[in-house]
Amino acid sequence: MSLVDKNNQKLLIHKDMDSVSLKHSVEIILTPEFYTFISEELDIKFAYQAKQIAQSLFDDYLDSSHEYQYHVSKHGESWYFYAYDIKEIEAFLESKGIEAHRVSKIYFAQELNIELTQPIKISNQNVLISIDDTVTILPVHLIGRDTEFKTLDLSKVKLHSGVSLGASHNSLISLKETILLSSIFVILGTIFIIEGNRTTASISKDNEQLLALLDDNPSYSSTAIRESILAKYKPINRVERAKRKTIKEISKLLSAKSELSTLHIEKSKVLAEITTLENRIINQITQSAKEKHLKTTVTGKTIKVEKSL
Fold this sequence. Notes:
- It is a single chain.
- It contains seven helices and 14 strands.
- The protein is an alpha+beta fold.
- The chain has three domains: 10-170, no CATH class; 177-218; 236-308, General secretion pathway protein M, EpsM (Gyrase A, domain 2, 2-Layer Sandwich), CATH 3.30.1360.100.
- The strands form four sheets. It has a four-stranded mixed beta sheet with strand order 1-2-3-7, with no helix packed on it. Strands 11-12-14-13 form a four-stranded antiparallel beta sheet, covered by helices on one side. It has a three-stranded antiparallel beta sheet with strand order 4-6-5.
- The longest helix is centred in the middle third of the chain and has 34 residues, at 183-216.
- The protein starts with a strand and ends with a strand.
């Protein structure tokens, strides 16, 4: 089964789709079978900055034998991160009769989040649905018998963040360019990488438990029970939130005349060392740290900042 808009300009790509024959260019929308998705609230302003930490965010979740490309986009207060294997996608498209030069743009089904509060049936086996603001594919048997499937008209869907097929073959900014952009970004990028990995690990584990539970217990597929299960597994971790807050507070102590020399994030505390050449800056940092309830120790031109969690 294929899902195409009325004007044949957009095509939903999923692994159970029928082969197609195209005589024109088309925009494709990839279902989650073809990408890995992470959403993070990060204090980053620009997409090129988010792009630099994308690969590290996915380190624990991707097959190391594949070569992945990365795409980022801003949605409200969150950054959306996508990892995908363009060679795998091109091979699948070719197997379905879609030539690479026919693809004008690639989009991701996550952009259909608002449209998928009700499931759409993409094949006899699977549905596409948004759960906790994340678009996912579920087996039909997990959906309640009384559930009404939505009809999605792709011609009326507005997509905003896509990538061209050609650009996907060279989608990462080099490390040299990153260093030239900003040395301070390297420090902040490291902070966000660490926190992103910790948070996404927790989310991934809970999602796996939920899907396993639903697979073993089809009776849980009713809306009320499913929502109850989702609420139970929603990650709420006071320590991780405290770590994120502390890292942000430490980053605010930095200036053009100081440098973060070390950062250690441990199970029960966060430790950082900031160096500067001016006594005036040392006094400013210690005073600001005190206001943020951070413990400081000054040794020469180095300020040790510590927060127990």
